[in-house]
Give the backbone structure.
Amino acid sequence: MLGKRIVLAGGGHAHLYFLARVGELTRRGFDVTLVDRSPYLYYSGMATGVISGAYAPDEHRIDIRRLVEKGGGEFIEGRVTRIRAENREFVLENGQTVPYDAASVCLGSEVPRSIVSKNGAGAVRVKPVVNTLEIRRRLLALGEEHPPRVLVVGGGAAGCEVVANTLALLGQLGLEAKLTIAQRSESLLPNAPRGAQREILRLLQERGAKVLTGTLVTRLGDGVAWTSDDRELPCDLLVMAVGVSPPSVFRDSRLLTDGAGGLRLDRYLRSIGNGRLFGGGDCVSFRGKALPKLGVFAVRQGPVIFRNLQASLTGTPLQEYRPQKHYLYVLNLGDGTGLAVYGRLSWRGRLSWWLKHRIDEKFIREHRL
Ligand SMILES: Cc1cc2nc3c(=O)[nH]c(=O)nc-3n(C[C@H](O)[C@H](O)[C@H](O)COP(=O)(O)OP(=O)(O)OC[C@H]3O[C@@H](n4cnc5c(N)ncnc54)[C@H](O)[C@@H]3O)c2cc1C
């Protein structure tokens, strides 16, 4: 064996397959360590359902510390700030170093802070996804005084789901919807088929949301946002859902990244030039291009990471990762229906929601202890 210390940095969706199988590895003589800034991972598929109350606050919480410890591994709570690939070690915020013989990084993604002025510090970002709990908490508190004015910046899948579920919650509270969604491109869900774009626009408008497409928000203030053409959008709650980008740790560590800062990987999910460092999920770039930043991609990378980390230490052949060409994405619309998108097809209804709910529930059952 070429060493036995396996370290996972970040217990994200792409590492869950591994974390559920730590016992297999420790029984075979490997030492497994997970480093994460939090002992819990919040499953993204259910995150917006928490806003409308479709799911209880901790129903989508996975105890990653217990997962690794149950298998005989070690959990270190800490934030990775550097990767010294040449020394095969991670450096944590508190200065601690964590050495490895083989490692994988799955540090997720962040909502960029580029348009936040200092007075806009109260804005809630949709990443980490645990923040949807904070959105619900604030809506409930604000709703006790008056119908809150909510502004969601960003009309991709996350932004649209936040709007739909916020409308559902306001409806349950008997409050009039004062909700605006601002989207820089000319349509909501810009990457979805046209049918889905029309459907989500119609649905959100019918339920009382004001949809501002072709609207670029450039500045945030205290209770207000400004557009590039100086329109003022006042709000009591501001949610930022303007897309995500990889954390800066790979650039800071001088590893090979793509233009956005995602760790560049080869066909085996291995960092270019670092034979014992692998990765997956939102923070990586696969063979020169970023894959969709979706949990369904991260989760499918899990078995390849599990196998290749071992293979790199036992000298056995590595497995190639082949991203799925088509994938199903179902938006939770907060009213017991879902909008399913598969390739160029889309359909909305109770069946879509039921399907999503079944898939998510099964996933969470498999990973909760
Ligand atoms: C509101 C919302 C809803 C979504 N819904 C869906 C959906 O229904 N279906 C779908 O497929 N995708 C969905 N997504 C996308 C999905 O969340 C991401 O693609 C997925 O979380 C990526 O997983 P990951 O493994 O890359 O990272 P994550 O699952 O985000 O995990 C990253 C982990 O790394 C840890 N971490 C981060 N930085 C550090 C550090 N420096 N040091 C130590 N630990 C660190 C974090 O604590 C976390 O545990 C949604 C996204 C949002 C924002």
Observations:
- The chain has two domains: 5-110+246-314, 118-243.
- The pocket of flavin-adenine dinucleotide is lined by residues 9-14, 35-38, 41, 44-45, 47-48, 79-80, 106-108, 126-127, 129, 158, 247, 249, 281-283, 293-296, 298 (CB under 6 Å).
